[in-house]
Specification:
Helix content is 25%, strand content 37%. The protein is α+β, with helices and mostly antiparallel strands. β6 (102-110) and β7 form a beta hairpin. The longest helix has 21 residues, at 55-75.
Length: 265
């Protein structure tokens, strides 16, 4: 599954989802949504990396925008609206046996003002930004931090009796290699459902949102080299990066990614 979108003159994206060749099902979901309310416009990219099934990822894909439409008139603030939508998504998925990461890249424009960029995430589907500095150097930076048990702040959220082994947390005979996700009812006592929400103040020229199927084998610093090697049309860049990942690395995980290009001029 590959597609592209150019909803405005300054925003373009190439999107690709690829089932790992040793996976029975494609549990990832990746969607683009746009919405307008009076003088506020929103463009949203969502990556969900499902595990144990597809119900949670599919639920998020289907319900994120309706929940946003419901929450915005009440909150009227981006951060508060994101937090409320994630609470609503948790309520809708808390009894699901399977689970999913959720990563949101959101652009908000009020009237004709400069668009504002936000990221929010649960789990380990990461966001990486690429931009030129004032000295024309290229900066590649992770914009999210995976929710893993080795992080002090994540471990502090867990109950004292949690079983931890090889980076996994266990409860009720179930294990997961992250500390935040939706769904996963058997791990409800352990998991945090509150996302990290960040307003990006730098103007990133390229933002890549992807499940760990990409980041497990592509270092963010090498991402720029890979993109530079590819001089073809932007519309298919995500599909080619996904195909290149399979050729260069014996990687069999499902992978979903969006390469988002922003023209700030």
């Amino acid at each position: 599954m590959s597609w592209h979108v150019q909803p405005t003159s300054w925003l373009r994206a190439s999107v690709s989802g690829l089932k790992g060749n040793q996976r029975e099902t494609m549990e990832d979901r990746i969607v683009f949504r746009q919405w307008q309310s009076l003088n506020n416009q929103f463009w949203m990219f969502l990556v969900m990396d499902g595990h144990g099934g597809t119900n949670t990822a599919r639920f998020v894909a289907a319900h994120f925008l309706p929940y946003w439409e419901k929450a915005w008139p009440v909150t009227r603030k981006v951060r508060a609206c994101i937090a409320q939508v994630f609470r609503d998504l948790h309520e809708g998925t808390k009894n699901f046996d399977d689970g999913s990461t959720v990563t949101l890249l959101l652009f908000h424009q009020y009237k004709s003002h400069t668009p504002q960029t936000w990221v929010a995430h649960l789990g380990d589907s990461s966001v990486v930004g690429i931009r030129k500095s004032s000295s024309d150097d290229v900066i590649v930076q992770r914009l999210t931090r995976d929710h893993k048990v080795h992080l002090k702040r994540e471990r502090a959220r867990l109950p004292s009796d949690v079983e931890i082994k090889d980076g996994y947390i266990y409860d009720n005979g179930e294990g997961l290699n992250m500390t935040r996700a939706l769904g996963d009812s058997a791990l409800g006592r352990l998991l945090t459902r509150e996302p990290d929400i960040r307003h990006l103040t730098n103007r990133w020229d390229v933002i890549v949102v992807a499940s760990d199927g990409l980041w497990d084998v592509v270092n963010p610093k090498k991402l720029l080299d890979i993109l530079r090697e590819d001089n073809a049309e932007w519309q298919t860049s995500a599909a080619r990066l996904n195909a290149l990942r399979n050729r260069r690395w014996a990687q069999h995980d499902n992978t979903s990614l969006a390469i988002v290009l922003i023209d700030w001029r």
